[in-house]
Amino acid sequence: METRYQLNGLILLYAYLQRVFVHDRVGAGFPGAAARTGPDPIPGLLDGVGTAIKTFDKDAGLSAEDGKRLLETTGSARSLMRAHLPRPDAALPEQLASVAAALYAEEHVNNGLVHLGDIFDPEVADQFRQRIPQFRTQVGVITGYVGKVTGGEPLTGEENAQLGSWFTNVTGSAAHIEQDFQRIEQYLGT
Question: What is the C-alpha separation between 98 and 102, in angstroms, rounded?
Fold first, then answer.
């Protein structure tokens, strides 16, 4: 397996873990949100995958031991994502959490692909670097929506329409999540 595929798998895995992390944090900010019981596994999983990305050796790739550990992390991430799949009939707090999580994850994928390009192909890096402002804007907008609603303010009609459009995209793309995890496993297999 080419090492660039391994790094791509790490980037996707990190984005899915980030998606769960953001979903939980946004959801916890709403009145009446259930309190977490027990330790949160996500920060440790994020740290492990983040370290693998930062220390990735483009020539050597992942060791068999690292590959095995990261495949275990992939199984955990898959289970966590299954528990966080958006429901089409979700109430506003769940819609906000699902959209915020997906937009943050997309930003992480884009930033990861810039990193991958910096290592393997500068043209790819430049292509994805040009998308950074778009993702920052989207993340800023959804963060503003979450802030309004958790602060007790209603969204405007235009804001509700934008949220609805994003939420439709998130629920529609949920069918592809399992394929992504299969791809991650393929890419991380050493």
Answer: 6
